[in-house]
Write a structure and sequence with these properties.
disordered N terminus, 47% helix, single chain, Rossmann fold, alpha/beta, 9 strands, 2 domains, 340 residues, seven-stranded mixed beta sheet
């Protein structure tokens, strides 16, 4: 699972497709042009050409040195240029650019890990992460509904980003018409840092539950929330945290909407029965290719045995990611929670 998250966050060739006669781009007006061109070369297994492009433009876009360095180092692996791969990572670290703690979990890194100084690289990377963790704080972004009116209480949707993500990126994917028009939406960001501007929830669930509850308290103090309708949801690690909140009753939620979640540690039939007694309903959305599908099916069987009202939505082969029609699926999940 961690391996898949890293490929999604760093390995930028995912989900790119190109024609056979694509015109060669020699100059790049922005990082995304560079990324697309590199991706096209990589997909065609033109690793030498792909490496040459990133060598030339490695630090041209300062905000993206991390991604460029990672992809260049990974491309060197395909060329079996392991020393060059390690030196590229060292170059980034020398610029105080560090990498996600799961970045080197993929088996392709094994030849590089055997090199003499690679453990020093990992130690430096962890040193930078710990320094960043000392400064990291939870964050909160609250969006009020369209045509917001004073004196009206609105339902609340608490949305939790996935692992190795943040609220800025997450809010672009996790939205729907009902959320936009009818809900106060609170995007909560964890303080548990795993990469540069990348956070997760599952490293320390007690910290995560406290931060989510603290965010909830801030929201209801400042905004007119209808506390009879509070939905919590999230993707991947955020889905685990959302289920943990619902199971522990840390916040009086009425429903949950989770995408590609794992199983929380406190997941058991007794807690599900307690949720049912409180009228909580929920939806798990996943994919045929999600690596946690079997775990999700196990959770659904417990929902069924406990008598919890649930939906289990399995989309076609998109893997561990957001379906194109997630907005519609969220709205259907909201309707399921509301109309009992």
């Amino acid at each position: 699972m961690k391996r898949i998250i890293i490929l999604l966050c760093f390995f930028i060739v995912v989900a790119l497709s190109y024609g056979q006669n694509q015109e060669i781009i020699k100059t790049f007006t922005n990082y995304y042009d560079l990324r697309e061109y590199f991706g096209s070369l990589y997909q065609q297994e033109k690793y030498k050409e792909a490496a040459a492009i990133l060598e030339k433009h490695l630090d041209r876009f300062p905000d993206h040195i991390e991604a460029n360095a990672f992809n260049l180092a990974f491309t060197y692996i395909q060329l079996e240029a392991y020393e060059k791969s390690m030196k590229t990572i060292q170059y980034a670290l020398d610029s105080r650019i560090w990498f996600n703690i799961y970045a080197f979990d993929h088996e392709a890194w094994e030849p590089v890990k055997k090199l003499k100084n690679f453990q020093n690289i990992l130690s430096r990377n962890e040193k930078f992460r710990k320094e960043a963790q000392k400064l990291a704080k939870p964050d909160l972004l609250v969006i009020t509904p369209d045509e917001y009116e004073d004196g009206v209480n609105y339902p609340l949707f608490i949305a939790l980003h996935g692992g190795s993500s943040n609220i800025v990126n997450f809010k672009e994917s996790w939205k729907s018409e009902k959320m936009k028009k009818e809900f106060i939406t609170a995007y909560v960001q964890s303080s548990l840092i795993v990469g540069i501007n990348q956070f997760t929830w599952t490293i320390d669930m007690e910290i995560s539950k406290k931060e989510i509850k603290d965010a909830y308290v801030k929201i209801i103090e400042k905004y007119p929330v209808d506390e009879k309708e509070i939905i919590i949801g999230g993707f991947s690690a955020g889905g685990v945290a959302a289920l943990e909140i619902a199971l522990s009753n840390s916040i009086p939620v009425t429903g949950f909407v989770v995408l590609c979640p794992g199983k929380p540690e406190i997941f058991d039939k007794a807690n599900i029965i307690e949720m049912k007694k409180k009228g909580v309903r929920g939806t798990i959305i996943t994919s045929e290719m999600d690596p946690r599908l079997s775990v999700q099916k196990e959770m659904v069987e417990v929902f069924k045995a406990a008598g919890l009202q649930y939906q289990f939505v399995v989309t076609p082969n998109i893997g561990h990611w957001f379906p194109d029609d997630l907005d519609k699926k969220i709205d259907k999940a909201i309707n399921h929670i509301r109309y009992k």
